[in-house]
Write a structure and sequence with these properties.
Largest sheet: 4 strands, mixed
Number of strands: 11
CATH topology of one domain: GMP Synthetase, Chain A, domain 3
Radius of gyration: 21 Å
Number of helices: 9
Strand content: 15-25%
CATH architecture of one domain: 2-Layer Sandwich
Order of helices and strands: EHEEHEHEHEEHEEHHEEHH
Length: about 375
């Protein structure tokens, strides 16, 4: 803790090709849950040029028009220009969706589990993290990076400048002293734009509009600002790069500050502990910090497929608290069984489209951010 260092985190806009894929997957998940809260969904999406491929396993009594949901999701993001290959009306959609494997459902359904309690949908380990360095209990670099990408999207949709396009990325570098953030030292913004927009105009917009609004009190005149390093970013989105569900797992979580179990979130119903247990671990980590057990806390939990109880629970306070006391508090206060997690956080509701972009954590409207 007693040292000085730089740490950077990145965020991407909703028009980034991987986020387009995530948003389609979560939109399909919500459409299923809206009609059948017991739906089992594992939906993956691939986007490239004028093609969208849907694949995965969905078992649901809901009748959902996947094509219509996909086109609506792309429209909401803003890819509607018929002159571009990737647009909501001109894409070709191919679906490879089957039902959930009977061997998996046998281990998840309460009626078929050995102990008659909903088992985990897969093995694996999940992490949750919280830090008191911001009011949101999030690491500052990822929090600011998200605010900048949100600003790009908001300014595009509001017409603050008429040349912004949906794709974009940001990266924020923060200087830390003794474990505390003290200064933003660098900002990188790569934003898709209309053709023939001079580089200086984009720089002026970032410097004079985007940074003051997004960085707030962390903005200052000595920040090293880098904008569209290659000099131009006209060709973007799935027209330029392939988008895949689940490729932005660090953007979705803590920007590299906290560890990650490896499982992605989008397109998965809450029987998949990759998603639900990661949300729950975040809630638990917040409570460890809020209740004064530590200034920083990371929770790890592990599961076996078909088993309801956690295989292990670990707490790391990074020398800002008593690990043993924090672990005892966690074990005594929280039920990590999948069915209990779903019930406590209300995870059978169609709430997942709102989580797709700008981080799954640090946003007060999400239940794992305010549930006690």
């Amino acid at each position: 803790m007693n040292k000085e260092y730089l740490f950077a985190s990145e965020s991407v806009t909703e028009g980034h090709p991987d986020k387009v894929a995530d948003y389609i997957s979560d939109s399909i998940l919500d459409a299923c849950l809206e009609k059948d809260p017991t739906s089992r969904v594992a939906c993956e999406t691939l986007c490239k040029n004028n093609h969208v491929v849907l694949a995965g396993e969905i078992t649901s009594s809901a009748s959902v028009n996947y094509e219509a949901v996909t086109r609506q999701a792309i429209t909401e993001i803003g890819y509607v220009d018929s002159e571009e290959a990737f647009n909501s009306h001109g894409i070709n959609i191919t679906s490879y969706i089957s039902e959930q494997s009977a061997e998996i459902s046998k281990g998840v359904d309460e009626s078929t589990c050995v102990d008659r309690n909903q088992g985990a949908g897969d093995q694996g380990m999940m992490f949750g993290y919280a830090t008191d360095e911001t009011p949101e209990l999030m690491p500052l670099p990822i929090l600011l990076a998200h605010r900048l990408t949100q600003g790009l999207a908001a300014d595009r949709k509001a017409g603050v400048v008429d040349w912004l396009r949906p794709d974009g990325k940001t990266q924020v570098t923060v200087r830390y002293q003794n474990g505390n953030p003290v200064e933003v030292t660098g900002v990188l913004v790569s934003t898709q734009h209309r053709q023939n927009i001079p580089q200086y105009k984009i720089l002026e917009y970032v410097r004079d509009n985007l940074l003051p609004a997004g960085l707030s009190s962390w903005n200052h005149g000595e920040i090293d600002i880098l904008v569209n390093p290659t000099g131009s970013f006209v060709h973007g989105g799935p027209n330029a790069d392939c988008g895949l569900t689940g490729r932005k797992i660090i953007v979705d979580t803590y920007g590299g500050t906290g560890r990650h179990g490896g499982g992605a979130f989008s397109g998965k119903d809450p029987s998949k502990v990759d998603r639900s247990a990661a949300y729950f671990c975040r809630m638990v980590a917040r409570q460890v910090v809020l209740n004064g057990y530590a200034r920083r806390a990371e929770i790890q939990v592990s599961y076996a497929i078909g088993k309801a109880g956690a295989q292990s629970i670990h707490v790391d306070t990074f020398e800002t608290g008593d690990d043993c006391a924090a672990l005892e508090y966690v074990k005594q206060s929280f039920d990590f069984r999948p069915a209990s997690i779903v019930e406590q956080l209300g995870l059978l509701q169609p709430i997942y489209r709102q989580t797709t972009n700008y981080g799954h954590f640090g946003r007060p409207e999400l239940p794992w951010e305010y549930r006690k």
